[in-house]
């Protein structure tokens, strides 16, 4: 009789789907490891010294030449036209900081983000329009989706959000990253907000009095180390399907020192992905699904996480294969960002046919929000280049005769659209 018992001694059939669904990741991993040890298919994670780990996971350098481990130092950054510098940094660190927006553009976009949030807040609950300088307005009821990780429930659909995601400097960076490929799509992605949590001037909800020095630990959220892809799928399937390398990105709309919460990553971890996969088992059927994956909390690589403070207007771009996270906001200021990235249109189209779909690609988003698509296309006066970058015009169509006029409604959008028109 064959032994169908699990490492827990339970007959396999009793470890039903429902009970498996209730297991924590840690417990599931422990059971898998035990099963693999029993089957002789378990490979020990290689143990390495700190010196070896520091070679694999180098620190992304500080801008002023100070200690690279100093988490308060701003980081080196590149001009959008420095294609070689950006590529070299990505090769070594798997990430790079680029100066993409002017201070005025970042200010205008930050104001737009807050106005958009107030416009989307539930009118039955909201009591104030959001004000960056007034924490009394930051209460959860004033946000569109207070329980979501970045306080919004849908992508950023304002005109300025489109001007920024098709910004000439950002297009230049991504064209360089994709070897001069011009036929790119911008992701239709989200705003991101992390509220200040410490030393706030807030209104006491019971007495109505305004009090200083208020703490909001419940707002102090952060994302643990993760990939927004499945490393096993990348190595075992995506590479064989010939997909392009993908990059993620976000733009800081305000200064984001480590205290306001900022992006964090393990520099070098993208180049290490194949080794990591070879040392970790797949998690059953879900093991190849197109989904976000977290390493175990005890994974030695996680100890090499580095926060990357960003100045207003800077963008951090990272390989999809880079282990990343963010650090919580422990300051009295808001962290405001816009997630922006670009992808080769051919690759996104190919992914749409496979199980490696990109959920922020224009066709996916426009299928989900058809009315917003109509509104954006017909009222935002996007240039022909912007229409192509956002999936409204096919890249194969070279006939620009029926381009809509460029008549943006805000000053910052006007600048961006004018620049875009020049490069169209
Ligand atoms: O907030 C950040 O800096 C990173 C966000 C992130 O990790 C994600 O959206 O996957």
TrEMBL record:
Domain of life: Eukaryota
Basic and acidic residues bias locations: 23-35
Region (Disordered), start-end ranges: 1-47, 396-415
Pfam families (alphabetical): PhyH (PF05721)
Biased composition (Acidic residues): 396-405
PANTHER family to which the protein is assigned, alphabetical: PHYTANOYL-COA DIOXYGENASE-RELATED, PHYTANOYL-COA DIOXYGENASE-RELATED-RELATED
Name of protein: Phytanoyl-CoA dioxygenase
Native source species: Thecamonas trahens ATCC 50062
